[in-house]
Amino acid sequence: MKKYKVVIVGGASSYTPGIVRSIMNAYDRMPVDKLVLQDVDSEKLEMMGKYLEILFRDEKFPADAEWTTSREKAFKNADFVFTQIRTGGLEMREQDEKVSLAHGLVGQETCGPGGFAFAMRSIKPIIEITKDVVKYAPDAWIINYSNPLPILAEAIRREVPNSKSLFICDMPIVQQMAMAATLGYEEKELTFEYFGLNHFGWFTSIKNKEGEELLPKLKEIMLNGEGMKLIDFGHLDESWMKTFANIAKGVKAFPDYIPLTYMQYYYFPEAMVKKSNPNYTRANEVMDGRRKEVFDECKRVVEANSIKGYEHSLDAHGDFIVDQAIAIANDTNERFMVNVVNNGIFSNMDDDIIIETFGTISKDGAKVEKSIEIPKFYKSMMVNQNAYEKLTVDAALEGSYDKALKALTLNATVPSVEKAKEVLDALIEVNKGYFPELK
Question: Which UniProt keywords apply (predicted)?
Answer without folding.
Answer: Glycosidase, Hydrolase, Manganese, Metal-binding, NAD
